Amino acid sequence: MPQRVFGERELDLVKQVLDTGMLSGLGGGQMTPRFEREFATAVGAQYGVAMNAAMSVLHSAVKVSGAGAGDEVICDPIVVFGAVATMYNNAIPVFVDVDPATHCMNPDLIEAKITERTKALIVTHLWGLPAQIDRIVEIARRHNVFVIEDCAHSLFASYKGKQTGTWGDVGSFSFQMSKQLGLGDGGMAVTNSEQVRDDLALNAGAPTFQAVAHALHWNYRMTETTAAIGVAQLERAAGYIAGLQAVAKMYNDAVAGCDWIAVPKPGPEATHTYHLWAATFRGDEKGITLGDFNDALARFECGVSVGYTGMAAYKHPLIAERLGYGKVCPLGCPLYDGANNLYPDGLCPVAEDLVPRILLAYTFGDEEAHKQSADRLHQAVQSLS
Question: Cys bridge to 135: 33, 107, 219, 345, which one at CB 3.0-4.6 A?
Fold first, then answer.
């Protein structure tokens, strides 16, 4: 079952790093390049660029897309991270609503949001379920829009036989401790473009950057010791994913037959890798209030949470209150002529309705604890049915 293992293999690889006396990939360290190669191979990409966090990857990917002041980047409305990365680059997030059945970006709504200012699109494979990435990439290609896949939840998830992160221009993976490959912190960009790899590497503190400032870049380098743990954990990752899928099945079984809880299900061409188990509460359509349901979860001491962040991405204070770098940028940038009433209520009605109804269960942990939690969820549901 999905419990992390840190053992002799990790210690051996970290000791190899310590024995070299070189704790950085800058100047000769070899563990970070090794991790980059092995991770890229594992997900089916040509190149990997290791960084200190997935947010660093997203920030760098938006920069590589060419988006800057006055430009637009299409983002998801449930998670806020793509919008934050966009604003790091002084660009404007533009939100496309989701499909209520999958919680992922709805391809049917993208084209209407593309303008002459659109430089990039960030699509999240939410909870571990792939979006309809083939359609999204096809639309983006027709409009010369750079595609960034946020794969923080979707390690080894696949769509039509191809892993997430390898469809667009850049795939961004997270190694924050809660994620499927937890290294404490860290991130990885993958790409099939040598030029994109080189551009991303400048933001990862590539050696060419130490002597000459070629442009405005950042220093998001991963340490050699983190990379060493990454090499070892990558060897265990497939086992972790299988365990997460088994845990998710417990929760799916717990709500099977309930017509007021909808579980996002992968189609026949998609593989879900369940960073989180998710579902949607629809009890109000059957005369059951959200308050009733929360009371039942509390009564049966079920560990499932309801409501995620409680708000669509553009309702977060950063965006709703137009915070940022000061001097009104980026959302009030004088180079942008669409700054008035950017994010009205009802902008993404599906997401606004969906977020307070999202059920989530974290899928790592003890098998028996998950069995108990799933059983309690089943009892809570049965008590209201």
Answer: 107
